[in-house]
Amino acid sequence: MKNLKRLIMLFCLFGVSYGLQIPQTSRYDKKITYAVFNAHDVFKISAENGYVTVIEFGKDERVVNVSTGFNEGWELIDRGNLLFIKPKAYTTKYIQNENPEEQNAISEIIVDPTPNQWKTNLIVTTNLNMYVFELTLNSKQKIYKLSFTYPQKELENIQKLQAELQKQIEEDKLDTSLNRVSIPRNWDFYMKVNKGSEDITPNFAYDDGVFTYLGFDNTKTFPAVFAYELGKESILNTHIKIT
């Protein structure tokens, strides 16, 4: 019974983590907000009639497409990685007289934004991500600016830089080793040159006790290097040094 209760509690916590995400407010002004991007979250935008809200996406993102469920009530303008959102009134027509024996009189009325009628969703697609928003009218919680952060992407970039740095360090170590121990110790090598292989034949060969060196002039083609031992061939790791 205790295990069942624990399972139910964990399930409830898991469900809450994927609910509507309310952006975190700045400590300086609650109308400036921030949110961590998660493709599985819906982000809430609270606006007010007469005010504009701007959403700031990543610096390397560009807005490709925007779509809302209530086009008449919201003005959407994108500029690069910015999206400006503003609630707006719209004009509609209605029939004043519905008597079939008389000519109907059609009038226009302006519908101003109201919290109950203006709530809708917004889908934004950039060149890198897709975002889902809920648009609402709320004068007490209105947002002037929402900026996204991308810690997962930043972590991946750091890991990529670390891998590139480690690779460069290993290459530098190899270059240092080659330059440090390149004094010839053994020139006792012989070559058997097959017919037609003159253009890949080394000009000289020696080893320094650590590496074996094959020298070619600039008129020749570098061949692939194999080791032949006990009747079997195996390809060797090589490094080219230009002198």
TrEMBL record:
Keywords: Signal. Belongs to the TrbG/VirB9 family. Pfam families: CagX (PF03524). InterPro entries: Conjugal_tfr_TrbG/VirB9/CagX, VirB9/CagX/TrbG_C, VirB9/CagX/TrbG_C_sf. This is TrbG/VirB9 family P-type conjugative transfer protein.
